[in-house]
Write a structure and sequence with these properties.
This protein is an alpha/beta fold. The chain has seven helices and 22 strands. Helices cover 21% and strands 29% of the residues. The radius of gyration is 23 Å and the shape is elongated. The structure holds flavin-adenine dinucleotide. Flavin-adenine dinucleotide (FAD) binds at residues 12-18, 35-38, 43-45, 48-49, 52, 54, 56, 88-89, 117-123, 256, 285-286, 295-298, 300.
Amino acid sequence: MQKDEIYDITIIGGGPIGLFAGFYAGLRKAKTKIIESLPELGGQLNTLYPEKYIYDIPGFQKIKAGDLIKNLIKQLEPMKPTICLEEKVLSLTKDENNIFTLTTNKGTHQTLAVIIAAGNGAFEPRRLSVEGAEKHENKGISYFIRDMNRFKDKVVGIAGGGDSAVDWALMLEPIAKEVHLIHRRPQFRAHEHSVELLHDSSVHVLTPLVIESLDEDENGKLVGVTLKDVKSKEEHSLPLDHLIINYGFASSIDPINTWDLTFTRNNIVVHSDMSTSIAGVYAIGDINTYNGKVELIATGFGEAPTAVNNALHFIHPEQRVQPMHSSSLCE
Ligand SMILES: Cc1cc2nc3c(=O)[nH]c(=O)nc-3n(C[C@H](O)[C@H](O)[C@H](O)COP(=O)(O)OP(=O)(O)OC[C@H]3O[C@@H](n4cnc5c(N)ncnc54)[C@H](O)[C@@H]3O)c2cc1C
């Protein structure tokens, strides 16, 4: 990352509202960057309910949350924004030249205006809380699957009982040597159809069991887990090459709530132009609040162009806030 590259607009959060703001900023020819703490774009829709239908998106009778995100990414792509994944924005400062510096866990980003589209805060996977789990992260233990071929001919354990755990077990079944699905309850919370497929598959369903400890070889490499039966308390070892944890996600507004902005509970108070108490910083989507605010995707979609156009007017006061319509801009 080049520290001296100054963007016009940097958007914190790659959920639906950040994605649409990124598209609209590109349409207005702003040099745009999106920073997202997760390895994937999509916010709550991809993380919490990708398979659920949404019925109140204008122009769609109904659309699956995951498909809406795919469409938003497709719409964004021609604008070629810079997208930084797996970067959590930790602090925001402004220098004497009115240039903002955003500091993340990976470095710094400079920008002339900031749009905060951080929803309920940065998502993080719920981690396995057994001794030594941290040191195996991204080696023997994964929270995200980027390349399924990594598990080719391996013995894989998947921990979790929701849709994601069951779907990954079914997807890895034809690739891995063995797949073991470990869940603390006998019932799975996944779709009935997926559970039926699971029981007809070669996936070894291990319930009601919890991971009690990690088994390592003499070099400290993960070679398996010790499982404990929730009822009988009996323990047994399960040799594994790889462990995938699917315990869902938690979000936290921290540390944005420590920034020098005006908050009502965990929401940033904005004016009708989406500006915050710091000139040049705007907030849109679930994270903002104003009189009459309704937390809906459709509402955030409307707030995005308002924030972008006002941010550009802030950067270039000679430019009008009201832009040309996209039907004229794209001709
Ligand atoms: C089960 C469920 C069903 C729903 N159904 C509907 C529906 O039918 N219709 C509807 O309109 N709404 C629905 N909603 C609400 C809708 O999902 C939200 O209004 C929408 O996701 C808000 O989008 P957003 O982009 O503001 O925030 P989010 O979707 O929360 O995205 C914010 C993104 O910002 C990232 N982020 C946060 N902090 C940082 C940081 N410091 N650094 C980097 N990245 C950061 C997060 O990781 C996240 O990816 C539903 C919500 C749930 C949970």
